[in-house]
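Appendix B. Extra example for self-study. Work through it before the problem class; the solution is given directly after the inputs so you can check yourself.
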Amino acid sequence: MMTEVSMLIDVAKCIGCRGCQVACKQWNQRPAEKTKFTGTYQNPPRLSANTWTLIQFIEPEDYDENPRWLFRKQQCHHCVDAPCEQVCPTGAIKKLENGIVYINQSICTGCKYCVEVCPFDIPQFDRASGTVRKCWMCLDRVKNGLEPACATTCPTGAVSFGSRTGMLAVARERQNILEKQGFSTRIYGKDELGGQHVMYLLPEKASIYGLPEAPRKPTEKIFWRWLLGVIPGMAILVAIFAYLFKQRSASDTAASDAKSGGE
Amino acid sequence: MTNHWIDIRNADRIMIIGSNAAENHPISFKWVTKAIERGAKLISVDPRFTRTSSKAHIYAPMRSGTDIAFINGLIKYVLDDMEKNPQNYNMEYVHEYTNASFLIDPAFKLPGDLNGVFSGYDKNKRTYNKDTWKYQLDGKGIPIKDKSLKDRNCVFQLLKRHVSRYDAKTVCSITGTPEDTYLDVCKTFAESGRPGKAGTIMYAMGTTQHTYGTQNIRGYAILQLLLANMGVAGGGINALRGESNVQGSTDHCILFHILPGYLATPDEEDVSVDSYSKNHYEGKNKDPKSANWWDNARKYIVSLLKAWYGDRATPADDFAYGYLPKREVDRDYSHISLFEAMYDGTIKGMLCMGQNPAVGGPNAQKERKALEKLDWLVCADLWETDTANFWRRPKADNLNDLVDPAAIKTEVFLLPAAASVEKEGSITNSGRWSQWRYTAVHPPGKAKSDLWILDRLFKAVSARYKNQGGPISAAILDMQWNYGSADEPDVHAVAKEINGYDLTTGKLLPSFGKLNADGTTSSGNWLYCASYTEAGNMAARRNGIDPSNIGLYAEWSWCWPVNRRIIYNRASVDMKGRPWDKEHPVIAFEGVALDGKYVTKKWIGDVPDGGWYPLMNPDGTLRDDARYPFIMKPEGHARIFGMGRADGPLPEHYEPLESPLDKNPMGHAEAINPAIKLWHKDRPEGNEIGTPADFPIVGTTYRVTEHWQAGAMTRNLPWLVELMPDVFVEMSRELASEKGIKNGNRVIVTTARGTLEGVACVTSRFKPFQLNGKVVHQIGIPWHWGYAGLSRGSSANCLTPHVGDANTMIPEYKAFLCDVKKKGVA
Amino acid sequence: MEHYNWGIPVALDLFAAGLGAAVFMVAVVADLAGGRKYRRISTTGALIAPWPAILGVLLLVIDLGKPGRFWEMILKRSHETLGVESLMFKIGSTMSTGTWLLTIFILGSLLYLVITLLAYPFKWAETLKKVLGVVGLPFALLVTVYTGILISATSNLLWNNWLLPLVFVSSAIVTGIAAVAFILAVLQVFKPESKIGSDVPRLEIMNSRLIVFQLLIVILFIIVGIGSAQMKAVIGSAFGLLWWIGIIGLGLVVPLLVGFKGGAKSPQISMLISVLVLLGGFFLRYAILIGGQMHI
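Solution. Structure tokens for the complete assembly:
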């Protein structure tokens, strides 16, 4: 039994240096994207099949009262209850015992359903390969006892990696420290979507960082939605039946009469 | 750095000023982050809110070029508070270890009394006669002190009078810092003055690249001395060097005014080893309790000559001292001067290694033109740099409108060079750690290490002198040059030569204490003597244990001097040798005491700054065999009053050469530093200076995490270009709306010297400065771009002027006047 | 030009699969309600039902990043050996459920088509047709619901609306009726002397009542989703024109008015009205699918 691994992203420690972005591309041999400077340091503007992790640069609106510049490392959360894995029609997306959720490139058909289902907008379609790609937490490194490339390169310890229990302990310890320093924090990913293998220690509201406050599995009420389609659908069919049944006695002529009557 | 990277974690207060450490030295934040975790408070002082500021407890905006006002106000706050709450400060440190108690010549005058200049100013020469900048001496030639710090002429009182003009209101009207924020900074940083507490100042080119850059640092030093922060763990003033090995290159004499180990370069008055030693070093101290380490300089220059000339350096020949080039007295040979001389056609050729002045040099358009005057240019680099490409450069900011290559006669050679990971050798980091590196991968193609290139160059030049002769050819031909017979020179032989030998035994020397002035020892750099001994290559050590618990890691690599990790560490203990900070002791005296007197000598912890007895016995009696802690100063005391500088013994606020203000805010006759050389007056061609009427906006330049210096290494890497694809111009929302500029618009920045095109980055992180009711805007531009490589863009240095610091001639890159408009708008 | 994850092929599939299934349902219900009386309706429905669904599936396969791997949705492979292990079916994956529903529906509707044709010469096939129709009804209904579930059970702010499946189901049925009416009207035009189009007005009248319901559902759908910026953009931007004029105006309100006036006055107008309904149905899928993927 492999131990369950986790990554902890301690947002308060992130200096937005983006070493992680480059380390990710280097280890996973992803090509650079052609970008433009558009008025923000954030680049590429969003995740893509070749950009699996991205530092979001956030300048909150209330700067004048409370100057801040926030950085969040965006990447796959490796959910326990992973919607992408649940909807994958080919089984190409697999949850491993150690918690890593990865896409088998030999099986993926590129249907892009996972892309639309992920609450964090993580998986991205790769036009070149026709498959969907995302962070796989450097499974090849982890299998060989190394940390993911981004965690290895992070200079400040904002990205750390270890067993899930260990990371939770670190997160709680940091939470105590930050609390003493006047920050109330939230361990995002501890319980969300069944718990996630990438947890964020957030000193501000999740929505400021572009995260859903209460991420929901989009498939969770699917049965009711089926019913909501099926029952009225049946009702419509019954109505049609009833209408046609009633009209059965009326002859073709009647129908023609109705038509000519209108003329 | 007086301390080192890891030591930042021991700080209780961290002030990052003139540095954007999080962006330009991200690894420093490993330790800043640890300090903050321990409860340290971080203060970020910067014209704009940076990634560093994002992690700070206090962010204090400050107009570029006003550090001295900012720090002098802080010093005033500390001095005032010292009077009210002396228990919060380490007064023993101040009167025993600094020159606060020293009496200064009564004829000395402060700028507050002399309309902005210190006594001795010569207006025509723009220099100072320093006759009054000196201590009062007693009959034995020892400086007179007043430990009560009451004497009107003592340094402490002079300082107090000097900074009394810098009250918070005045300071903030100069710097533009909100007053409550400023007072918060003062209070917070002053808390590090409490005995047992430590505060560090991290600075970089934002501090140095001003016409008074040296005085900026002097300000930090004075503040840190008053707060007893020098020599202690988590203290110090820490220069974050701009490149991984810039400390090493300075140690090994990359600058014109120093030889290896910071020995002065000889000038034309230093005709012999004897006169050199006497003119620069000897006879400066009469106090027997001052170690005055530079008194040993004769040993170092002789050992250096032995390393260079070997057997040809004999006492009879004055150790071949005559071969050393001598510079004209007070003549400056720094970057700006060299390029001005090139512009004149005086300099005919340039060997450019690991440098890209066409992007990195100030007033870059002029420097690019200067390159046209060369007969030949050799560039050794990983890529074809902008400098190597100057003959097909754009005329102005339109990257596609090129100069005519046929009109340029310079012959350009490009030597492919190996990257740092492609060769073996040492790198000395900002914390003075010399760390040995192995060859990780071999260089591609025909790329060669710098050592290989220099070795072949020397051999070729040497052969030519041998065959064809030439002026003072013996200076070349007599040089000792034995680095093995393999294709790649033996880098270990170089490292051993730097360490030095006992020439009588042929053994490597264990430390510079063994160097002699009689020609029996050699050392290529006395500061590095102990780095490569009979015990092995110290820089290659990788023992990760830390018995000190303060992160000294004494057996990891090697650090100059003599593996001392925190310099001035004798000031981290009281006069009896007991550490001020019991939690983070750097050193401690553990000698045996008998009847209240120490009888055996034993220091534990870091290598002490001199292993003498403490100044005082446990019973309070003073010891004659002790030495003052600041051993590199003739008087053994740290200088609050620093008479060595060209532009004044205390820092005084002056405006940048291009200032947005009409007059000096301190009421001086002249706005700018009175001791700087004015290139635009002496040599107006291509050295235009703007006025606030034409160029009302303050401009500054800086770097970003994603690019490296002049960009040759990073603008060619797609992964980094992806992160930062273009030059941008950061500005406040207020300025942008005044100018009709929207975030992401292309804008044109103009100075008296040139223009730049970039993308507007409109942000709340820049705010207009309120200076006495006047609104001054500032913009900032990263300077990494040029016309060669994968990512091309205008160079910010086309905007910056040719003017330098009064002491070091470092260019004033950080504050100039400009205007900005949306592209396409008249 | 923005690249959409799911583009026109998927919009066409959502439309066509629903349409085919609805046509099938209309055919079966007509057959059950009136037997030979509604033979024109049920036979026409049976003849056309499989083809839109087949077209939809083909479009879906083409839209895959790796069309050659479409069979991965049917057969499950091992991650380790990449060998086939079993059939691939995941109840929680609407894509997987839909794959099977469509497969079953296409096979069933093709069989239904054959039996419908057989029922002309062979009496016994008549009963078989009824049985198969009843068995096929739930699958057809599920296919129409599937098109809505597929995109509503996502994190897309526009699509994740609990009314979306119903919007698609009712739209599918409305377009299904229009499709049958269209074919009958066309045949009428080609054979003006026949009575082949005689059911068309009845279908139009029936459909107008359903359109009232459809309009209510669509308005409810907008109200439920109005909190999201995406919805505001879809009904407010350039898409809004398509939405208000194409889908609601021409696609629903005009046919509704015609139906309430007792049906179109000529088979030519009937053709036009049916086309409006069909186009409206497609634009509904298109606007929702593409609108939901706009970066705002």
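Self-check: The two ends of chain A are 80 Å apart (CA to CA). If your reasoning did not lead you there, revisit section 3.
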